[in-house]
Amino acid sequence: MIQVSSIRKERSQSPTDSVYVHNHCKNPKPLNVTGAYIVHDENDYRDSLLPDTKDIALPNHTESVNEISIDIGGSLSKVVHFAKNKEGGGRLNFYKIETSNIEKFIAYLKEIMKVHYHHDGVNEINENLTLIATGGGSYKYYEDLQKQLNCRIQKEDEMECLIIGLDFFISQIPNEIFYFDENNHTYVETEIPESESETIYPYLLVNIGSGVSMVKVTGSGPDNFIRVGGSSLGGGTLWGLLSVLTTCNDFDEMLEMASKGNNEDVDLLVGDIYGKGYNKIGLKSNHIASSMGKVFKKVFRKTGQSESASSDNRLERLQNFNQQDIARSLLYAVSNNIGQISYLQAQRYGLDKIYFAGSYIRNHYQTIRTLSYAINFWSEGSKKAYFLKHEGYLGSMGAFLKKELDNDNA
Q1: Which domains does the chain have, with CATH numbers?
Q2: pTM of the model as a whole
Q3: To 10 degrees, what angle do helices 323-349 and 251-259 make?
């Protein structure tokens, strides 16, 4: 069982420090974050996984909220909305679903609007309600959203929303940030105290969805970030390959399969080549020399069968392998590649802090450990990989905070 240790620091609760306002639009609606906390019991940590995403309580936010935000990506659609508590204050609620189920997602939005915002779009219309949308799907599904929800829709830039969301989480929500301690096999919660907010910048954001975007952030203003790189080898790559090579039906099932696999049965290791480690250049015997490098030999391992005479039956070939091993190998391949490119970008721009986010991570132990190991290995221990408990909701959270007071008639 993975233990969780914490590094916590007291935050100021004075009125001047309790209201969060970003600098990315003219007149952003403030959010009272005094006493904010993630709603979960630490006893819920089980096995090697962090708990599922939980609500964020805002016990002192009393202003009216008439916005819902969504981030429709290539693989997943996410929503953030505010629900009032009878006793005062309220909670930020988070939900995600595969974008292939877009109709189900829109139906869920309808239910949220009806229950929490008194808007069914037909018989009852809340003129003040705004749906703030970001991600590629905010353009692709704009007409469907407009037709079925019948409310004001405000489209926002995806990259800007990511930065606003990340800044909010890392600066305002206690115990949101963590890293993986390889020596003790523990998740360590940490945070940046508000009194030292200048230490937040600069940093590199590595957002891993279907693909990967890497963004250098130098400050809290609208012009203080730039996309410096990325990769087409991301969550969509892993999902696509495992959809063909395994019987998995969704991404979470693939991650579960990977957690049970042994990559050494399909990956070619340094020890397989040298019979030991190549210590002169820092490679241990169990380091991966070639992802899935043993597969070729296993495909053609039948006695007396030449490569040209080998069967072309794909299913017959797959039977030579354990699906769990394939899943583990490909998870390592994609994650290691992302980790190495991330380190190189951080090194290129002199950035010490690297935040990994996006729905690819899913708070999955092997993914977190692999990305952490890659950063630690390539930086020779000088850099850490930081993660967030709401890692898949940066865009939707940023969109939520883009509501402007000028447009709010509540």
Answers
A1: 3-176+393-407 (3.30.420.510), 226-388 (3.30.420.40)
A2: 0.84
A3: 100
